[in-house]
Design goal:
Elements (H helix, E strand, L loop, with lengths): L4 H17 L6 H26 L2
Length: 55
């Protein structure tokens, strides 16, 4: 079983953007909740993007 480079790159971009913006989001609970929502959205959107790219 190999490493899926598309998933690694996708989550690296999502986490990078989130970490760049996180200090401006307020308290810890708010950042955790936003991180959870972003993770759910990213996991939902990735298969769609992969399908459109033919991967």
């Amino acid at each position: 079983m190999g490493i899926d480079a598309t998933a690694v790159a996708w989550y690296a971009v999502i986490c990078g953007v989130l970490s760049a913006l996180a200090p401006s989001f307020g308290g810890r609970l708010v950042r955790v909740m936003i991180g959870a929502v972003v993770g759910i959205v990213a996991a939902t959107v990735l298969p769609v993007i992969r399908g459109m790219a033919g991967l």
